[in-house]
Specification:
Blueprint (H helix, E strand, L loop, with lengths): L1 H13 L7 H6 L16 H13 L19 H17 L5 H21 L8 E4 L2 E5 L6 E3 L6 E3 L5 E4 L5 E3 L11 H7 L37 E2 L6 E2 L7 E2 L3 H7 L7 E2 L1 H10 L5 E2 H4 L3 H4 L1 H21 L2 H5 L18 E2 L1 H9 L1 H20 L1 H4 L21 E3 L6 E3 H6 L5 H11 L8
Antiparallel strand pairs: 1-2, 2-5, 3-4, 5-6, 7-8, 9-10, 11-12, 13-14
Helix pairs in contact: 1-3, 1-4, 4-5, 6-8, 11-14
The structure holds zinc ion (ZN) (6 copies).
Amino acid sequence: MEYDERLARFRQCHVNPFNRGEEEGAREDKHAPQHEVRPELFSTEAKTQTVDRTMDLGLAEDHFSRPVGSFVASDIEQLKLAIEECKRLILELPEHSERQKDTVVKLIHLRLKLQELEDPEEDEPNLRVLLEHRFSKEKSKSVKQTCDKCSTIIWGLIQTWYTCTGCYYRCHSKCMNLITKPCVRSKVSHQSEYELNICPEIGLDRQDYRCAECRTPVSLRGVPSEARQCDYTGQYYCSSCHWNDTAVVPARVIHNWEFEPRKQVCRSSMRYLALMMSRPVLKLREINPLLFNFVEELVEIRKLRQDILLMKPYFLTCKEAMEARLLLQLHDRQHFVENDDMYSLQDLIDISSGRLSCSLTEIHTTFAKHIKLDCERCQAKGFVCELCKEGDVLFPFDSHTSVCHDCSAVFHRDCYYDNSTTCPRCTRMTERKHDPENPQEA
Ligand SMILES: [Zn+2]
Ligand SMILES: [Zn+2]
Ligand SMILES: [Zn+2]
Ligand SMILES: [Zn+2]
Ligand SMILES: [Zn+2]
Ligand SMILES: [Zn+2]
């Protein structure tokens, strides 16, 4: 019933004789019953009957034989019905006839028109570059997001919207040209250093009582607009640029070992902090060496990282370890394979929660097991303490050992500290160098 009703409405729009071209008018004489399909005849009862009859008579094609330009259907449903009808007609009309060819052309036009109506913004580009943002057109229709520009909801079903692939700034297509905030991704690449002063306020007066970002007038009294402080930059923002988002602020972590995301930050700080989260840019030893004195977990992690760096040369020269991709177990913390003193904010968060200690201990155990137990090639690269020449094979990452800084030889820690002279291996090598009979080193 619903179908018929819609079909009837569709036809109603197109029985207007003024819509028809001249040639068609002549052809239509053959199809006199057409004239029955007048709008005033569409009473509820007559409708089904009339429509069915028109369809049965195969007269419907006349609706589509008008020039495409005069086509006025604006409703998607109606267009879909018209397309169905066109398809049916094509099958019914004599093969290769002129009318069938015309109908095929019309079907194509109808489909194009439908496509246009279903996605009216089809002509909007998929990628737009603006203030260093790289906006990519979103396909998702159902997700409800908030526009970072106008702070209202993005209705994916009816509105076109974009997300920056760099900083995840989201906005309506219509708001795009109003954007004044440059992409924070570029800030991350140009200036990959955190502000490490806790909430470095300069005062509203120094900001001319304006939002630090968009320059809207603001005040703490909320007149004309509420001033909100960002705990990361210390500056004040308007409510469009500061949504009271909470974040872990690096300065508070470094100085107070404080992780509660109680502090509120502006939108662009939030995006910046999110992008920086996994970047190993914090050299704790330099920024706050005192941390190691009272955060035990940090000392533990530092030891595990130092051990892993000592294990790395074994893996780089071991075919089996390479094949087993052992070092790749640290692929999401690549810096752990490169140095032992740079930390990302995520590392520190995971250290404070205990997560990093767990996962790193596990990796450390796997690595040590390969070198000391599973792999003959790696085992063969162990050391015998040259000071006492006793005991098990030693490895530089064993807990009771000391390593010569010059030749990397490994000794029992006790033997090494008792030894008041120099490293025997270094001494031997020096002697050989000076021996004219044996110029080659062992
Ligand atoms: Zn918007
Ligand atoms: Zn961006
Ligand atoms: Zn603002
Ligand atoms: Zn090995
Ligand atoms: Zn020893
Ligand atoms: Zn040595």
